[in-house]
Amino acid sequence: MVKFSKKDLSTKIVAYIILFGGGIIMIYPLIYCFMASLLTLDEYLVSGLLPVPGDWSIERFANLLKFFDHPDVVPSVTITIVRFLFYAITNIFFSMIGGYIFAKIRFKAKKFIFYYMMITMMVPGVATMYPGFLMYAKWPLVGGNNILGQGGRGFIGSWPVMFIGGWFGAYNMFLVRQAIYDIGNDIGEAAEIDGASTLKVIFMIYLPLVKAVMAVLLIGLFIGMWNDYLFPKTFMDGTTTPELIPIGYKVFEIISRAEGNSSQLPNYPAIFGVCFTAMLPTILVYALLQKQFVQGMAMGAVKG
């Protein structure tokens, strides 16, 4: 039987208290959002730190269904899932190839290229949004543009703009590289001796071994796609192509409908209901892949 000293025991108690308190702080907004959605507006206005409904009747859950009241919710969810699947395939493909190259293949200027790629992670995405907008708007021979990229809108407001960028990320490639680097060369060399091509070695040998890192990649990608507001706001025209607007921006429109007019108080319980329902898919995805996510972060943190 393992015995703990008083110092070790006190340290564990303090650690558990901190973890428990931190967990409560982290989950409180989610609980508050759910509980507030079950109230009427009058009940919410007089509620405290934790709004509790007077009863749990079925009618109180109506605000959770307001997410589906908007006529374009299904197309928005569909285009969001299609974008996620497309970018999941492209990011896994290029991240695996790039990660394998930087981890297992020797070539000149390898470190320089790798460090240059890492530097791009320091550039905030918002800083590249305006140059990206101009690039897509001035694309030659697209959207009414001539060969010089003038006269039309290019890709702006059309569906291709949602798929022509972001096929790989430096952070994803870095995680895969770190995970593959820690795997011995013997297994790959044995497959090559048996006649496997480089692509087979990457996707049939190493990919199953770094599936936990793929879970990290997919979770981050799904959350980013589901919550994406700025991209459709900037690059899409919601007035002419409402069916192409991803759900991240569509939620904002649904909330705006729930706010009422300027002479009324916003319907806060309805807004909380829409927000809580919109959060459920991301919570579910993380819950299903939580174990792989923790393992993947640990694998990606290996020093190479």
Number of helices: 13
Task: Note the run of SSEs as H and E.
Answer: HHHHHHHHHHHHH
User: Which sheet architecture does the biggest sheet show?
Assistant: none
| Rounded average pLDDT | 86
Percentage of β-strand residues: under 5%
Proportion of helical residues: 55-70%
| Head-to-tail CA distance between termini | 39 Å
Low-pLDDT windows of residues: none
- Rg, alpha carbons: 24 Å
Number of strands: 0
Q: What is the molecular shape?
A: flat
Helix/strand structural class: mainly alpha
Short description:
The chain has about 300 residues and is mainly α. The chain has 13 helices and no strands.
Structure commentary:
By secondary structure, the protein is mainly α. Helix 6 (170-181) packs across helix 13 (290-300). The model has no long low-confidence stretch (mean pLDDT 86). It has helices at residues 6-37, 41-45, 73-104, 110-119, 129-137, 170-181, 186-193, 198-209, 211-226, 230-235, 247-258, 268-288, 290-300. 61% of the residues lie in helices and 0% in strands. The protein starts with 5 loop residues before the first helix and ends with a helix. The longest helix has 32 residues, at 6-37. It contains 13 helices and no strands.
